[in-house]
Amino acid sequence: MSRQNITYNDFSFGELSHNLFGRGNVNAYRNSAMNLTNFDVIVTGGIERRCGTKFITELDESGKLVAFEYSSDKKFLLFFGDEYLDIYNEDEELIETLSSPYEFFQLPKLCWSQKGQDIYFVHPDVEPMILRFDVVNNSWDFSSWVYAVDGQNGFTFGLMILWEFL
Q1: Which residue of 49, 80, 142, 145 is 20 to 30 Å from 158, comparing CA positions?
Q2: Is the pTM of this model over 0.85?
Q3: What burial class does residue 32 get, using C-beta atoms within 10 Å of its C-beta: 0-12 exposed, 13-18 middle, 19+ buried?
């Protein structure tokens, strides 16, 4: 009897967990790879090489980097330092420096979420902040989070939660 080699080219389950070795009866075993170092899985099941990194500038101090992608042609890199925020565009240019309420020791606990042209920042010791990109004027605004009160029930909602109801 001859040996048969079966080729699988669907990696939709990503990299195989060590717990699934030898579990050929599970779909994840057939639709994954043993090692996907430096590859990204495409939604349709294929893989492609991971993008490399690009040198933008040399910084004087350490801080926190945040990626901001408004659209496919408008991407920015935000660098949080000690009480300041530098905004770089895709052309490696520093386009704006803003004052930031976050001190250097607070940066590890800084969390954020992007929705459209706004990024919402939260930290346990600082009031929530919104960084808004104005597409028309190509400008940035870093301001406090606006809260709203529901008149019927008296509930206080953050701006992000209100948007979910609209």
Answers
A1: 80
A2: no
A3: buried
